[in-house]
Amino acid sequence: MTAIRSRILLLLSITSLLAAAAHAGTLSGTVINRTTGKPEANIVVDLLSPTQGMTELATATSDAQGHFSVTKDSIGTAPVLIRATFHDVSFNTFAPPGRPNVDVEVFDISKDPKTISVPSHVIIFEPQDNKLVGAEEYEVQNNAQPPAAYFRTEGNFDFAIPEGATLGQVSTTTSMGMAVTQASIDKGKGRFAIAFPFRPGQTNVRLSYGLPYTNNAATVKLPATYPGAKILVVVPPGITVTGDGMAAAGQEQGMMVYTHDVLAAKGVLTVSLSGTATGQPAADEQGQAAPQEGNSRQNQGPEVIAAPSRLNDFKWYIFAGLIALFAMGALLLSRKEVVVAAADGDDDIAAPAGKPAKTAAPSKSKKAPPAAPANVSAQVDQHVAVTLDSLKEQIFRLELRRQAGTISEEDYASEKARFDQLLRNLVQG
Asked: Fewer Cβ atoms within 10 A, N terminus or C terminus of the chain?
């Protein structure tokens, strides 16, 4: 009886997936200017495929009511990235598979630097051979009223790297959870900038660089670009961290966390590091295609830059504890129940890059099993895996924000409850 019941459930699951695939092909939406609250007409909307190197699937233009609609066989069973160009600035919106309608948000542009604030700054160091690899993440908040995106073509977010360092990748991550590679603007003497439209809400700016680590020791000096930000320094076990204003703050997901006094204007963060990391898992980060957002339409070129959506070589250190946590699904499911508000259409967790690819419509023949069910199952597995990856990252960020004191206990409990519910849904579904 159990075997028959399992087969019936499997058949129902495959049937529902095939039904979704059979109705795939149309994606419509409305371009809304969140600054004015009104629809925007004559906005060029590009539909891109994150699973196919950001290849363009279709292009449409919003009508007088801001509405657009595209019908194509390659739309519907795989995720789609919608890029709307407004005032020569690109705004991205994610449409997960199976959702036929989505609102595309654009904003009026502000050039006032006071539009944004930087409440926290996380710095991660990892020794590799004779080099010290650094990765930094700035939390950027835009609380503009009325809502507006902060953008300047000459660069609107400044950052500095230590003397003698070589800048690696710079990326931004919005509430969609997708990392967007950014071109850096060299301002000389270790100072750089990016030009990116910081929409209302939170955006994380990430960057990486390499430094000499001679005899397993280095002293790093970072000038303050955003004074007043709470600073966390994170290193793997085995690394000794010293410096004026540094204070040990325990461990988080297997990493050693230190806090530092808030820097004043023209202040400098000085950190001395020594030793070698212990218990290092092998790093295996693979790059993913990242959409471009924030550049003018004329400068976007072939659309895609292959880039990792996380902190490259630090991922396995940072998430070692979380990986084990997710592997023990039964333990997590035994946690106490929490009350969580329903997730909206543009969930922070449900929109990472690198989603599963589209499958063809299934065959109706009963003589041989069609190939579509296996493909659809593979798509679902890949979608869940990528979503778990993004969820782990969000949990780690939440814990660091709690360490830095940039989130209230009430908001922390609410966010943690939401993550717990999302995890339950993924494990059960």
From this structure: N
